[in-house]
Give the backbone structure.
Amino acid sequence: MTSTNKQMRKAVIFLLFLLGLVIGFFLRYSLVPLESVLEQKLLWLLGFFIHQAILFSVVVGTAIVLYRYRRGHYAIRALGWGIWAGFLISNLFFMALILAVALGGLTP
């Protein structure tokens, strides 16, 4: 394999990771309306736990796909890691936002 092919392969893998990152972000933000509906219709604590179960199932599902394709299949692995990273980064962003509102007394 020539160095040009290796560089192209690395670039494609990086772009797939970034695509997965964007997909993970949008997937997490698309679950926000579901969380608010669950909290309005059910007790807020029950809605929170159902929402966390959905988030956990997405993360575990991605981990299963990553484990299944742990050798080779670099494109699938890059996309899976990107989705996982996007999910976790957006969750950390939400936690930081909630903490800032709680500590600063800001209204959303």
